Every structure is written in C-alpha cells, then in structure tokens.
TrEMBL record:
Alphabetized InterPro entries for the sequence: A-crystallin/Hsp20_dom, ACD_IbpA/B, HSP20-like_chaperone
UniProt source species: Alteromonas salexigens
Presence of the UniProt keyword Lipid metabolism in the record: no
SUPFAM superfamilies (alphabetical): HSP20-like chaperones
Domain SHSP: 29-143
Claim: tRNA processing is one of the keywords in the record: no
CDD domains hit by this protein: ACD_IbpA-B_like
Name of the molecule in the record: Hsp20 family protein
PANTHER family tied to this protein: PTHR47062, SMALL HEAT SHOCK PROTEIN IBPA (PTHR47062:SF1)
Family: Belongs to the small heat shock protein (HSP20) family.
Alphabetic keyword roster: Stress response
Top-rank taxon, per record: Bacteria
Amino acid sequence: MRTIDLSPLYRSFIGSDHLASLVDAATRTEKQSSYPPYNIEVLDEDKYRVTMAIAGFSKDDVTIEVQDNTLTITGKKPSDDEDSKERKFLHKGISERSFERKFQLGDHVKVLAADMEHGLLHIDMERVIPEAKKPRQIEIGSRLLENN
C-alpha cells in the first residue's frame, strides 16, 4: 500500500488536516468493489448527477442516506431461496448481489432528488454555498464589524 506524505501541505495550506482526512477516505474507497458501475456527471457549474446501473433492483431494495458529507447507497436483494432453486441458468451474467457504495461529498453539497428508471438510479446534487462563505472584497483602510 502506498502512503502519501502530506507534510508539504501543512506549510502552505490552512485547514489541511481536513484535506488529509479526505485523502485518507479516498484511499479507503479505492478498495471498494467496482459493482455496481456508476457515472458522475457535471450538469452545471454547481450541479452534479450520480448515475448507477442497478438492473434488477426495485426502489424498495435501495436506500440512500447522507451523513457527515458521505452519500451511502445500499442495495439489498430479498433472499428468495425458493425462487433461486427453481431457476436454472445456462449463463448468468447479471449480478443480483447486494451492494454498498459510498461517495464523499464536498462541503455544502446537498442531495436534491433521486429517481430510478430503466435500471438506472439517478441522484441529483447541488453545491449551495452560504452567503457568509462566498468571497467578498475588503476595502483597504476599512474596518469590518461582525454581528455578534
């Protein structure tokens, strides 16, 4: 396993401890299975869509949860042992296994909606930056008063 030396970042970035935790989370997600396949699409400057191919799953089989900037999508197939005993395959190329896929969301990214059609799950997101976090220009020689 590769390790990444983040010490140069500590000299030039404020808050790089947060960056280090994001890098650590990204290396953990590399170990995930590639199932189910997905796309991440940029729809607009601050709008995104995750599309996952989950053929064979109904909306009752899938849960979507957001917690601490982590989007978790879980698919659980009900275990129908009787149904699987009746089915015989010459070739089985469609996976019917359960899955869990996690995505790290950037700061201020909100999940807007989820929809499923034709075996594809679409999750729409938008980055909404609060007014207090947007850049503002400071006049030289002026003093800012904070509202406390």
